[in-house]
Amino acid sequence: MKAWLWSLTALVLQGAQPLAAQAALPSYRVDLFDTAPSGFTFGPASMNDRGAIAGLATDNGTLQQQLALYRGGRFELLGALDSLGGFSDLREVNNRGEVVGHVFRSEGVRPFIYSHGQLSLLPLPEDARGQARVLDINNAGHAVGYTQEEGQARRAFFYDGHQSRYLDELLPRDTVLGALNDRDEIAGGSGDNHPLLLRHGVVTTLPALPVEMPVGDEFGLQAFTLNNAGQLFVGYSINRDKDSNDEWGAYVYDSGRYTLVSGGNYFGVDMNEKGQAVGDFFDESGDPMIYGANLFANGQFATLDSLKRPSDVPWQLLQTYAIDNRGRILGLGRIADNEYRFFLATPVPEPGTMGLMLAGGTLVAAAKRRRCQR
Question: Are 34 and 48 in contact (CB under 8 A)?
Fold first, then answer.
């Protein structure tokens, strides 16, 4: 009997997989994320693929900032950012709990890293000058960024976990490498509408974005995320003479094809290993729009507000920060006039649960039929 049940379960789950690939967008349970270490106020900024959330914890008494990580239902204080010499912001956290960001010092912007229990400035190439920024970190602890002297082109660098080196000999000048996956494949752009992919020391120019290059206006391209399946979440911006005519949008590039996520004033944020992407809409002044947070998955696009359960708090979901591999989304919303709160949106039922529910329902029905036949 048990062997029969396990065999049937396996068949049902196998049969459910194609259905999941074609499924409609899920509903979302939206919860306040207002937890914080005792005596601190916590501002989440990023979330890794496993749902660990990194952010800045501010001491309610001294106002000192600490880098903090929330995982497994508890907080870890990782170090005082004031020790790095200035105000800080946070960029990314990987699955090992390593965090990168920036510290704004009197001499300029410098990247920092938390790794192996230590908080320190990220090592830069030996001849680095000017401002420096870090843009992404992968699960091996490698990172990409750039330095820039005033009036000069950007110089992309790669950090291998120990030291950084410039990539000048491989890339066109002023290339910005914005996305790094676990294979050390790096995606970016260099001023036109062709994304670049650096893989094993070889630069590949990808097909042009299906966006008409403007004449006389500034065009920008930014790689948001490159996942391990090779899917690239990439955005563009057109800076026209008047702010009201500016345009932002994004595509997902996969297997030689671009799929439009959205045009208009849309800015991409993050994409997980399943190709689910989140982003936001902004108004002409650059402020987040009401109901601006959105989700792209299975070739479909929707605002998060349209996917949340009617029974949830009456949110206006404004911005997204990250999406993990379970489809959970971290972001910022508004629940009353001028009351901005962080949220964590969870798909219901969560991935994996639906297949088990289908299997369970089929097993129950089969068991009933079997008893009736006796």
Answer: no
Cα–Cα dist 58/343, whole Å: 19
Handedness of CA 275, 281, 282, 283 (dihedral sign): positive
Question: Which range has the worst mean pLDDT, 64-68, 83-87, 222-226, 349-353?
Answer: 349-353
For residue 275, the tally of other CB atoms under 10 A from its CB is 18
Cα separation, 72 vs 227, in Å, equals 24
Cα(127)–Cα(62) distance, integer angstroms: 37
Separation between Cα atoms, residue 300 and residue 22, nearest integer Å: 10
Kindly tell me if the per-residue pLDDT of 359 is higher than 60.
no
- Coil vs helix vs strand at 345: strand
Question: What is the C-alpha to C-alpha distance for residues 59 and 79, in angstroms, rounded to an integer?
Answer: 12
Q: Which residue has the tokens 């509903």?
A: 27
Phi first, then psi, for residue 164 (nearest 5°) are -110, 150
Q: What is the pTM of this model?
A: 0.85
The residues near 356 (Cβ < 8 Å, ≥ 6 apart) are 13
Could you check whether the bond before residue 349 is cis, i.e. omega within 30 degrees of 0? yes
Helical residues (DSSP H) of the chain, grouped into ranges: 2-21, 304-307, 353-373
Sequence-ordered list of residues with C-beta below 8 angstroms from that of 185, at least 6 positions apart, any chain: 197, 198, 199, 226, 230
